[in-house]
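Subject: design request, 290 residues
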């Protein structure tokens, strides 16, 4: 079996040969940020936008970025040379490994950079054709959800609630408003108008969310960005999840009840087609990043 080549602090190495200090602040405090980039036949989908968001996350946690966006793109390409086909690249940067545990951020510490590649598990045909089940829960996470932090315990606990009942996601509600799901963004559709929650500190501004809003504009799909109430979620004609790995998926049952007709709706089918066309254009026109 060929080894899975990963990146660790500037070097390529087999994943199972990489070891990290137990004092690393990523391990001790979850003091780090990350990205997940989908790659189709060697072409990153919105690679630049992912590394720009990594920069914003690092700015928010006061961590100096060891690389420019262009350097990150080049490093990712080097790694992808070892991984042909459809992949997802995981990038994690932590505040590094200080000599002792202390909450205060140490000065002049070298960040730890880790990147690995895993086969991209795009949604199966069955999920696209029939949609997926979700549950809802109160959003018990912190109020800096716009940072793509590796401190994901809140998201993990939320996701497990849906996993426990065989559902695909947990859609979160804060003060009666939809925020997002445990690892995806949420859209609702009513009377052919799509709505997405505002891009504030209570959600991660998904790169897929952003792409979907652009594809809606290009494809003459009406879309509003505004607060979405729990009542709107429960009476929506369609509910969608978006993420780099889920792409766009229709939610067809919510807390065990059908969403709209109980089948993926026409606006979903249109957006799904626009998304697939975008992926196909990416492969044809821009071999590395778009
Ligand atoms: N999750 N919201 C949360 C909380 C997320 O974790 C994610 C992505 C998204 C969608 O973001 P994007 O469209 O940029 O993938 C929204 C990734 C895929 C993960 O943690 O694996």
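Subject: RE: design request

Done. Sequence follows.
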């Amino acid at each position: 079996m060929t080894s899975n080549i990963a990146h660790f602090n500037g070097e390529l190495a087999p994943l199972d040969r990489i070891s990290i200090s137990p004092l690393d602040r990523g391990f001790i405090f979850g003091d780090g940020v990350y990205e997940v980039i989908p790659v189709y036949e060697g072409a990153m989908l919105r690679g630049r936008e992912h590394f720009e968001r990594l920069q914003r996350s690092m700015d928010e946690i006061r961590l100096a970025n060891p690389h420019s966006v262009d350097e990150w793109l080049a490093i990712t390409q080097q790694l992808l040379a070892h991984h042909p086909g459809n992949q997802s690249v995981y990038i994690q940067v932590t505040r590094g490994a200080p000599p002792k545990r202390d909450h205060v951020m140490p000065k002049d510490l070298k960040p730890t950079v880790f990147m690995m590649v895993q086969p991209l598990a795009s949604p199966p045909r069955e999920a696209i054709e029939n949609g997926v089940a979700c549950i809802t829960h109160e959003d018990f996470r912190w109020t800096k959800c716009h940072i793509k932090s590796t401190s994901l315990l809140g998201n993990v606990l939320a996701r497990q609630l849906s996993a426990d009942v065989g559902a695909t996601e947990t859609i979160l509600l804060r003060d009666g408003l939809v925020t997002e799901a445990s690892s995806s963004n949420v859209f609702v559709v009513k009377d052919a108008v799509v709505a997405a929650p505002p891009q504030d500190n209570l959600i991660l501004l998904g790169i897929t969310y952003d792409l979907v809003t652009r594809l809606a504009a290009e494809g003459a799909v009406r879309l509003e960005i505004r607060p979405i109430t729990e009542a709107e979620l429960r009476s929506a004609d369609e509910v969608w999840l978006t993420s780099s790995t889920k792409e766009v998926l229709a939610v067809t049952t919510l807390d065990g009840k059908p969403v709209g007709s109980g089948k993926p709706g026409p606006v979903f089918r249109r957006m799904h087609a626009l998304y697939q066309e975008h992926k196909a254009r990416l492969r044809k026109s821009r071999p590395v990043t778009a």
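The helical segments are 25-29, 47-60, 69-80, 125-130, 153-164, 207-218, 230-234, 266-285.
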